[in-house]
Amino acid sequence: MKQIAYNTPEELLAATNKNRKSTSLLIKKLAKKKPKNLDDFVHHLHNEAFEDFSCLNCANCCKTIGPRLTHRDIDKLAKHLKIKPVAFTEQYVSVDEDGDYVFNAHPCPFLLPDNHCMVYENRPKACREYPHTNRPRFYQIIKLSAKNCETCPVVFRIFEELKKKFL
Ligand code: SF4
Ligand code: SF4
């Protein structure tokens, strides 16, 4: 995987929708085959993709899906902004339909116009870990990752490369 063409969120969603059938087929195939080297292959694709692609040219995740916030995230962000956690929560946090703490606005209130993160060194754990394609046991998050193809061009590309190898 040499280059990743940047997709607008709309193009990416359209491409994800177009490829849903082959993505479902891939998930079924991998469930049956359970390839031993799947994690190594996905991690290789992840590293290769992020060598070529800068999140600063994208920020789709920060613009469209917020992270879940833990109490520790809220404490760290409040400290970063030099305000009390209660004040931080009042100003920036809401509770979603699953009962999780999330930012109360999209794009994220800490996303700067040049796509940098205003709180980068204290950003939430979920932001650090997104899009999760470098974690162990990829198979456990394959359905979540398939959903992330709608948002993240790197994840989309990883799925297309997996299809070339396993379909
Ligand atoms: S805190 Fe930073 S990394 Fe996380 S969504 Fe907001 S801008 Fe993006
Ligand atoms: S993690 Fe994915 S969606 Fe988020 S900025 Fe990077 S490439 Fe874009």
The share of residues in extended strands comes to under 5%
The SS-based structural class is mainly alpha
Biggest sheet strand line-up: 1-3-2
Separation, N- and C-terminal Cα atoms: 17 Å
If you average the pLDDT, what whole number results?
94
Number of helices: 9
Largest sheet: 3 strands, antiparallel
List keywords for this structure.
single chain; 3-stranded antiparallel β-sheet; binds iron/sulfur cluster; mainly alpha; 167 residues; 53% helix
Describe what you observe in this structure.
A three-stranded antiparallel beta sheet has the order 1-3-2. The chain contains nine helices and three strands; from the N terminus they run ααααβααββααα. A hairpin with a 5-residue loop joins strand 2 and strand 3 (101-103). The chain is mainly α and 167 residues long. The longest helix is centred in the first third of the chain and has 15 residues, at 38-52. Helix content is 53%, strand content 5%. Bound molecules: iron/sulfur cluster (2 copies). One iron/sulfur cluster binds next to loops.
Compact overview of the structure:
The chain is mainly α. It has nine helices and three strands; from the N terminus they run ααααβααββααα. The protein starts with 8 loop residues before the first helix and ends with a helix.
Note the topology:
Blueprint: H1 9-18, H2 20-33, H3 38-52, H4 60-64, E1 68-69, H5 71-81, H6 85-92, E2 93-95, E3 101-103, H7 125-129, H8 142-148, H9 153-166
One iron/sulfur cluster binds next to loops.
